[in-house]
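user: Kindly work through both lines:
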Amino acid sequence: MEFSSDILILPGHGNSGENHWQTLWEREYDFKRIEQHNWLTPTCDDWVETIEKEVSKYDSEEVILVAHSLACIAVAYWAERYNRYIKGALLVAPCDTEAPTTPPGIVGFDPIPAIELPFPSIVVTSLDDHFASWERTEAFAECWGSKLVNIGKAGHINPSSGYGKWRWGLELLKRLDE
């Protein structure tokens, strides 16, 4: 599979480990990871500014963001602040930062922006993600104007849920790339 866009990987809280699908995709396809300054006690403003700094290095109309978990919420805040058009965003397993399951130490990621994103997006969700209920993720997708893809009982769509290379996710990414 080949991609024509500039694909930027945005891991969530704690970064994506060696066996995470984001890391595997990054290695195989030479995607660029956006490195945040603080993965364990993140501040939304810092993450948003880092996203803007990295996206600014590219022709934004050729950029696709691939966000997981908390990074999905950071993308919504980035879109709200900068209203920049990009080619698209694949938003996988958004974390509900207004729920009690939010990891401690996360600052400024609530309330979750209820805006229409100024670019095409796909939200991928699971029926049994402990970081966000199906109903909440469905509401995020509706507000954001995103296509919603439910992949059934898939946990947090990460290695502990059995997701390594995740070929089907690559097919969703390819849809945004075309």
Remarks:
- The chain has one domain: 6-177.
- The CA atoms of residues 154 and 162 lie 8 Å apart.
